[in-house]
Amino acid sequence: MPQIGFFVGAAGAGIFGIPAGVANLMIAWDPYNAGPRSPYGVVYKSLMLSSVVGGGKIRNYEPIQVAQYKRPHPTSSFSPLGLDTVKFSLTGHSNLSAWVDLTLKALDETGKEVYSISEGTGKDFLRVRIKGFTTVSSFNFEDTMDMDLERPGRFGEGRQSRFDALMTPDGSLW
């Protein structure tokens, strides 16, 4: 089964009564359950403006087993998954909870859902264990994501090290 890892970092404040901030979302996709150092691992990322007040950073505690991706790979997409739009949602039960409900869906160019990580479970989400802290009880994102094509740098930073960190149980929070 494939597995994923994620990282969300967000910070914001109220400016003249209007919430304004920035959020960073990274999703690591391991299509063959190969774990850290997999040559097939892909990292998607997005940096966005957000309406959070407060913030924090959280990530998966361990790799999350997800449903198989059954859609044929389109030849027109650069992405191995053919993702046009990703719908990502985390809902916590309290700000101090170590568990959240994770929703991750892929939508095609028409907005039709073509994949859900919880497919076959009878639910719209997976309950996953997280690591980190946040003052935000929910985070929602629906947009396109860029594939991280950055090569490793001198000190090991880059796509492969981000993939490895997200696929390592109880790994670094940056």
Map the helices and strands.
Layout: E1 3-15, E2 18-30, E3 42-50, E4 54-60, E5 64-65, E6 85-92, E7 99-107, E8 113-116, E9 126-134, E10 138-143, E11 146-147, H1 159-167
Antiparallel strand pairs: 1-2, 1-4, 1-5, 2-3, 3-11, 4-9, 6-7, 6-10, 7-8, 7-9
Radius of gyration: 16 Å
Q: How many domains make up the coordinates?
A: 1
What is the 3D shape?
globular
Amount of helix: under 10%
Helix and strand pattern:
EEEEEEEEEEEH
**Mean pLDDT level:** 79
Class by helix and strand content?
Answer: mainly beta
Main pleated-sheet profile: 11 strands, antiparallel
Distance N to C terminus: 27 Å
Low-confidence stretches: 74-78
Strand content: over 45%
Q: What would a concise description of this structure say?
A:
By secondary structure, the protein is mainly beta.
Structure, described:
The chain contains 1 helix and 11 strands, in the order βββββββββββα. It is mostly beta strands and 174 residues long. The chain has one domain. Strands 1, 2, 3, 4, 5, 6, 7, 8, 9, 10 and 11 form an 11-stranded antiparallel β-sheet that branches. The longest helix has 9 residues, at 159-167.
What characteristics describe this protein?
11 strands; single chain; mainly beta; 1 helix; 174 residues; eleven-stranded antiparallel sheet; globular
